[in-house]
């Protein structure tokens, strides 16, 4: 098992965006496909133009390969967006790319359910499947059929 720095310890919430807090542990079932879902209903970030807070539920679904993200480190990472200014679409893509780099999942998708501001809700979605595998085909299929 990887050395986990945050689990079971008091950890400081990062003051700014910080993917270095993310940690992994070994998947005990890498030969099987199964879904892991995280929901963070208290995600906050800042509008990069006005500096006003934006609130969302971030949903992360993935099929793990060899590594899995440790949930406390994920919580600290998501909290690190609190003082970070980025558009909603950028947030979900940054989260997905950081998690791909961290754990190289077979498949991952990230959805942001942002609360309305100015009368409009924004729900960006992104996904990724491991290239040259059935998971890449799955990503294409799910993107084409998203919200149908």
From TrEMBL:
EC number(s) in its UniProt entry? 1.7.1.13
Its pathway, per UniProt, is: tRNA modification; tRNA-queuosine biosynthesis
Cite the active-site annotation.
47 (thioimide intermediate), 54 (proton donor)
GO terms for MF = preQ1 synthase activity
Q: Where in the cell is it found?
A: Cytoplasm
Can you supply a Gene Ontology BP term from the record? Answer: tRNA queuosine(34) biosynthetic process
The keyword Iron appears for this protein: no
User: NCBIfam families per the record?
Assistant: QueF-II
Q: Which PANTHER family match?
A: NADPH-DEPENDENT 7-CYANO-7-DEAZAGUANINE REDUCTASE
Please state what the protein is called.
NADPH-dependent 7-cyano-7-deazaguanine reductase
The protein's organism comes out as Microbacter margulisiae
């Amino acid at each position: 098992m990887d050395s986990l720095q945050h689990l079971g310890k008091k950890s400081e919430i990062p003051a700014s965006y910080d993917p270095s807090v993310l940690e992994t542990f070994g998947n005990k079932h890498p030969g099987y496909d199964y879904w892991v879902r995280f929901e963070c209903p208290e995600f906050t970030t800042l509008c990069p133009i006005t500096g006003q807070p934006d609130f969302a539920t971030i949903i992360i679904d993935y099929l793990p390969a060899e590594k899995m993200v440790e949930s406390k480190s994920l919580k600290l990472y998501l909290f690190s967006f609190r003082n970070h200014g980025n558009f909603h679409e950028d947030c979900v893509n940054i989260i997905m790319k950081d998690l791909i780099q961290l754990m190289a999942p077979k498949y991952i998708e990230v959805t942001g359910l942002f609360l309305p501001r100015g009368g409009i809700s924004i729900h960006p979605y992104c996904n990724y499947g491991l290239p040259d595998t059935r998971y890449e085909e799955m990503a294409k299929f799910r993107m084409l059929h998203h919200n149908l």
